[in-house]
Amino acid sequence: MARMISYRDAINEALTLEMERDETVIVMGEDNAGGASAGSPGEEDAWGGVLGVTKGLYGKFPGRVLDTPISESAFVGAAVGAATAGLRPVAELMFIDFMGVCFDQIFNQAAKFRYMFGGKAVTPVVIRTMYGAGLRAAAQHSQVLYPLFTHIPGLKVVVPSSPYEAKGLLIQAIRDNDPVIFCEHKAMYDVQGDVPEGAYAIPFGEANVVRDGDDVTIVALGRMVSVAEEAAKELAANGIEAEIVDPRTTSPLDTETILESVERTGRLVVVDESSPRCSVGRDISAIVAEQSFGALRGPIQVVTPPHTPVPFSDVLEDLYVPSAQDVVNAVKTVADWKR
Amino acid sequence: MTDRATVRTEQGLDADGLRDAYRMMRTIREFEERLHTEFATGDIPGFVHLYAGEEASATGVCTNLDGRDSIASTHRGHGHCIAKGVEVKGMMAEIYGKATGTCRGKGGSMHIADLSKGMLGANGIVGGGPPLICGTALAAKIQGTGGVSVAFFGDGASNQGTTLEAMNLAAVWNLPAIFVAENNGYAESTSSNWSVAADNIADRAAGFGMPGVIVDGFDFFAVHEAAGEAIARARAGGGPTLIEVKFTRYYGHFEGDQQTYRADEVAHAREELDCLKRFRARVIETGELTAAELDAIDAEVLQLIEESVTEAKAAPVPTADDLLTDVYITY
Ligand SMILES: Cc1ncc(C[n+]2csc(CCOP(=O)(O)OP(=O)(O)O)c2C)c(N)n1
Ligand SMILES: [Mg+2]
């Protein structure tokens, strides 16, 4: 029996279940408790973060949901430190853009411990953070920065594309013993999807084949999965059957599923909402070019925004974000390609 | 611009100065009140953070500044922009995402900037501004312009490492830099009573070896005087100052915020403490300005805001080509 809940509620449910199961799991972030912990003269109100993702946890888990001052370096670093000392902290870095003020604690500290300390450290920290364009939030609140984390050995990076993936991948992230960056698309919080009630973990490094097809492989990440699905419908109406592969984690990356698909279809289009240079989309296309060159029947296409910051104006932002039409055009380019 | 404002500080504000200050505060207020109404219609994209209630801070500080000086602002930046002389019509068009906007529709409410006016930008990153003004202050010092730089930041931002590092840097480099902590009681839903470990943000000044002062943020004259003193000292080579301005924001953190985390302190503030009401009462009482003069300013300001909204709505949107321009100067 299908149970439809939102991406936001799926994340909340994953946190609730893991906090119930394991008392070492704690949650921290700005406005997670808000009015409630601040001793404010206002009503008791725990915001659950600025978009209400952790709403309800504060009352349920006394002492385990911490508010933080706006001191990302300090609290993200504290989450990393606490992870080395037996807790499983889930820190909320409100917008991924704010990694700018705390990146050292993530990439020089958390990411390096295991290797640098000769395999002796265990740092099971999760950093939840929202990314992506579409809310007219302009250049400092709309970026898609998962490639920067993916670049760093020692970090695992998750980009859930639906409520189902969000819940299962977050449960895995919390249980995982390595540092995990969990990237939530801010325009997806109200997206509804079928989500089972109990706990389930989706393993990292296992892509999901969202749609079967033999004519072209479309690898899409995060919110771009739904854009690719829309494109696939239009392509099907024109006799082109697209296979859509959602890697679900960019690190580790399930290259096997991608390569297997391209070996069969001979065509690859990657849809990635991040800036085009040094991106996950370019990384995937390079891997395929290296390992499945002989199978390719046309040039790999990568659909991305232009190499610009995210514009504010709604007109410009709509042009900026890859659309289903852009994906259709890219597929046609590779499908029509003649040597 | 001339040095008129500086001269005025030393002598107190004359009638012209008072009129300018009142017009500035009223412009900020009406700009924000109108945005509050317009936002509710759904015409304005993105996040909008209103400065209503806090006008005396931007105005009290910026009436001490001139063309040599720079300021850095926050996500709640409209008031600072207006006080530093950014064109109101361009700002309104920017907030509507239009091609005629201050930033050609690419920045929006959170990023309005006009470097030609010494306005380094509203800022989407909490604590983004304080380090930047160390740089403009350093440039002014090296170039000997006599310029002073001011960072406005919130109580929430006072806990950001960048803010604390910037204050220390300004002190060790003896920069002409002023740090204005605008304590409106909350960072989003989080109370500053909780988030600021010291009793006052200004108490932290001692840790950086600079003077720290606390000012009633509803009192234009108090802010003007405290800022005047600090700015004069900075201009004379006396280094940075931390000024904590205490008040209440009249609206939510952003438009749409239900504000369940705070009791209604706004009705009292609007009624009893409001900076515009107090300014009016004082200058009428001293006979420096008449009610009629002030009313005339109110009417002019309303007219300006009306025109800026009408023009912003009618203005053209950016074109597809604009998406790709201005990433670099050369590439
Ligand atoms: C580095 C960073 N962290 C968090 C945020 C999200 N955020 C935006 S405004 C805000 C509250 C700021 O409070 P305060 O500094 O007191 O300014 P106020 O809004 O009260 O003017 C927060 C947490 C941000 N924009 N940047
Ligand atoms: Mg505040």
Automatic annotation (TrEMBL), chain A:
A molecular function (GO) term: oxidoreductase activity
Keywords: Oxidoreductase
Domain Transketolase-like pyrimidine-binding: 5-191
Record-linked InterPro entries: THDP-binding, Transketo_C/PFOR_II, Transketolase-like_Pyr-bd, Transketolase_C
Pfam families linked: Transket_pyr (PF02779), Transketolase_C (PF02780)
Lineage: superkingdom: Bacteria
NCBIfam families hit by this protein: PRK09212.1
Protein name per UniProt: Alpha-ketoacid dehydrogenase subunit beta
Automatic annotation (TrEMBL), chain B:
Keyword Oxidoreductase (UniProt): yes
Coiled-coil region(s): none
Gene Ontology molecular functions: magnesium ion binding; pyruvate dehydrogenase (acetyl-transferring) activity
Record keywords, A-Z: Oxidoreductase, Thiamine pyrophosphate
Residue span, Dehydrogenase E1 component domain: 24-320
BP GO annotations: pyruvate decarboxylation to acetyl-CoA
Cofactor: thiamine diphosphate
Protein name per Swiss-Prot or TrEMBL: Thiamine pyrophosphate-dependent dehydrogenase E1 component subunit alpha
Organism the protein comes from: Aeromicrobium camelliae
